[in-house]
Amino acid sequence: MRARYGIPLGVTATAAACVAYAAGFEARSFRLRRVEVPVLPDGMRPIRVLQLSDIHMVSGQKKKRRWLQSLAGLCPDLVVNTGDNLSDPTAVPEVLDALGPLLRFPGTYVFGSNDYYGPKFRNPGRYLLEKARGQHGLNGKDHTAHGVIRNPWGDLRDAFDAAGWVGLSNTRGRIKLDHGPVLGLTGLDDPHIKRDRYAPVAGGPDPDTDFNLALVHAPYLRVLDAFTADRYPLILAGHTHGGQICVPFYGALVTNCDLDTDRVKGLSTHTATGSTSYLHVSAGCGANRYTPVRIACPPEATLLTLTPQNRISPPAPRPLK
C-alpha cells in the first residue's frame, strides 16, 4: 500500500477509524453502573446515591443532556456531584437544563478545576510524562491561575444552592433525606489546583448524624489519607475519567493525580494510620472539549446502594503497582 507523507495509508486509516470510534461512538455511549457498598450501621434502611462527575458540558451536547435528565427516573435518595461540570464558559444554562430534573432531589456537590477555569489544549502525551516525573496538578505552585479563561462558576453555585443542594468547599454540612435519616457531609475544594484546606474540617464524622460521607473532586493521596485517618466510612471522588484512554485487557495508563491506576475508577478501599475507608471514583460522563475521546472507558454515572455492613464482605484492598 502506498504511503502518504511517509505514513502507510493502512496506518492512517486505522488511526482515523480509532479516533472516529473513540469520539463518535464510545464518548457518547453513556452507561449507568450499579454498585453496592456495605457501610451503613446495622438495621439502617439502604440509601440510593446517584453520583455524577466530570460532565464537562459543551454547548450543543444534546444527547448528554437528555441522558442526564433521564437519570431522574432512578428516584435517588441523594444526588452527589463531584465536580468538573463545565468545559465551555457558555454552558452553565445547559448544565442546569441537564440537571434540572435531578435538582428536585436532595443533593450535595464539590467543584473541580474545570468549574473554575476553562480548558486549554494539552498534548495527551504530557500526562504520561508527568506520571513518569511524579508531577500532578500544580505541584506545589501557588494556586492562583494566570492566563486562563475563568468560568462563571458562581452562577452554577447559586443555582445548586437555590435548589437546596449542599455545597462543600472545605466545609461541612448536613442533609435530611426524604425517608428520615440525617447525613453528615464533609467536602474539600479541588486538590488538583491546591484549593483543598483540610484543617477547617478535621476531626472526623459528625456524631449527631446517622451516617457520614466525604467528598472531593480529585482523589489525591493526601486527601484520602486525611479522610481515612479521620474514619470516614466512604469517600466519593471523580477527576480521573477512569483513565479515559485505556488499553483493552490492561486498563488505564494514567490517573492525572497520584492515585494508582488500579483504583482509577470504581469501588476500592483506602488504608491510612490503621483505618480503612471505602473509596468510589467515578469515571465521569464527559471529557475535556479538546480531547473528546474515550477508549475502553465509556462515560458513566453510578448508582451506589449503601447497605448495612453485615450484608456483604468488603473487597480486599488493591495492591499498588
Description:
With 321 residues, the protein is of the alpha/beta class. Helix content is 20%, strand content 23%. The chain is built from 7 helices and 14 strands. The strands form 3 sheets. The chain has a 6-stranded mixed beta sheet with strand order 3-14-4-5-6-7, with helices on one face. Helix 2 packs parallel to helix 3 (92-99).
Compute the CA-based radius of gyration: 20 Å
By helix and strand content, what is the structural category?
A: alpha/beta
Biggest sheet strand order reads 3-14-4-5-6-7
Instruction: Work out the number of β strands.
Output: 14
Strand content: 15-25%
How much helix, percentage-wise, in residues? 10-25%
Defining traits:
321 residues; alpha/beta; six-stranded mixed beta sheet
